[in-house]
Amino acid sequence: FRHALDAYLNDRRPEPTPRDVDVALRRIAEQQIRGLAPRVLRVFVTLRASSEQGQHLRRSTAAAMTALAERSWLPLLTQKIAEPMPPSSDEDALGDQLFWQATAAETLGKIGQPEALEPLLNVIFDPSKKRLGEAAYGAALELAPTQARATQLLHDRQTDRARVGANLLGRLGRADAAPELIAAAKRARTPEERYHIGYALSQLPPSP
């Protein structure tokens, strides 16, 4: 596996086929070969998902990243998800960023460090990153401080932020969030706010 990744990264001849690299990345993910984590990270940051190679390797690269989820990657990955999105007219650049940022978000969830929460919330708040929302939500649910932060957001005067708080509490699915959601529903100012809070309540387990 090391030989295949080194040959790919260093453009050695004869080059490994995309299948060789794909198989290596999948085996690294399955066996969690942590000694190859630096090479996996290099593949990730250099892979352009819009390229022909990227089409072959994007899934196995993401699988290896999320399987290894090294804590030392935290600064680079939080920087990745903070990058601006290119215009939709630049399809290749947009595809590359969607791959990098979705994989980075998912890996941050697996790393599980609390300091990743605010960068992930910034992705959710950013209207230009709607296509990354599910990855960011899924990652945020993996982090310990999310329920407390979501409860804070539920009280935010900005409707969009309060909606994110409700969505997070609903997705977490913890019964002890019900009183805060019920109180928020009572003070909701619009039918849309009440709808989102009601939906979040519907995702909680029934009261005993």
Largest beta sheet, briefly? none
H/E series: HHHHHHHHHHHH
Assign a percent range to the helix content: 55-70%
Average pLDDT number: 93
Number of helices: 12
Distance between the termini: 52 Å
The shape, in one word, is: elongated
Structural class based on helices, strands and sheet pairing: mainly alpha
Q: Which radius of gyration do the C-alpha atoms yield? A: 20 Å
How much strand? under 5%
Would you kindly provide a written description of the structure presented here, covering whatever features stand out?
- This protein is mostly helical.
- It contains 12 helices and no strands.
- It has helices spanning 2-9, 18-31, 37-46, 52-68, 74-81, 91-111, 117-125, 133-140, 146-154, 159-172, 178-187, 191-202.
- Helix 1 crosses helix 2, helix 4 packs parallel to helix 6 (91-111) and helix 10 (159-172) packs parallel to helix 12.
- The radius of gyration is 20 Å and the shape is elongated.
